[in-house]
Predict the 3D structure of the following.
Amino acid sequence: MAPGISNEKKKEDEQSSKGNAIHLCNPHLEKMKEDILYHFALGTGTHDFPALFGDVKFVCVGGSPSRMKAFIAYIAEELGLGSQDGDYPNICAGTDRYAMYKVGPVLSVSHGMGIPSISIMLHELIKLLYHAKCSNITLIRIGTSGGIGLEPGSVVITRQSVDATFKPQFEQVVLGKTIIRSTNLDEELAKELMQCSKEINEFNTVIGNTMCTLDFYEGQGRLDGAICLYNEEEKLQYLKAAYDSGVRNIEMESSVFAAMCNLSGVRAAVVCVTLLNRLEGDQISSSHDILVEYQQRPQKLVGYFIKKSLGKV
Ligand code: R2B
Ligand code: URA
């Protein structure tokens, strides 16, 4: 086992026996009089977190602010909680870093692109849920990805997030030392989501590994970036090796998402639609309408899962 992983694994095991509250892996926070969540423009000194967020049970996160607004409008209608004017206020209106929407027990938050962006958002989201005294939280990333060997528009529920060398781990440098964190996701939740997809029966869905990269172009073996020093054969060899190791899609946030949810005791899943088959090309060339419809698929699946969990199906 890699150095660093065993201690953190022990902490995960300890914490999973402590029930379903958010586990905050930071003793310093207890000593702070006030906690400012700077990138959300929210703070415990200025906002009543238990009153604002205490009833949250489902948190959905995704890259784009407009997609996360569309998701809250969709889920509001599905749960019969739609607003009169069809509008939903952005709780983080004091900043343009992230957008956040809430309806009933569902919170919808944007996270931007890439590991650093989602990691900052997750630090503040996990603290928000802790300060609000939330329990039994299910956190799901709904996003887009590039598929490997799948028909475009297929949905991948992540079994394990792996790095660009196909290892199920996330490397975080802390105080100059590389810590290796596990990227396991909740197996039971992945199965429940798969069952929901079967019940909807509208699009192809698979459970598979998701490769999380640090970049969209060279990092994902594309030939169409500003820099590319390999040939098509080398690219295809890499993508086929990824496929053979169990990878079915590629995106840019799942590893740190899984690692942080693991350490915080949060039940989590990643559900991404594939916009193209990377064995057939690199450019995302489908029409706007087709891409919009593809992006609604993870929303539909997770919307159905939430309705079912609330006994509304
Ligand atoms: C999927 O799509 C984005 C890149 O286009 C990135 O945020 C991701 O994970
Ligand atoms: N997002 C990615 O990270 N890669 C793709 O190919 C498509 C969407």
Q: What stands out?
A: The radius of gyration is 19 Å. The helical segments are 5-16, 49-53, 65-78, 115-131, 187-200, 232-244, 254-264, 288-309. The domain at 5-309 is CATH 3.40.50.1580 (Rossmann fold). Confidence is low (pLDDT under 50) at residues 1-6, 13-18.
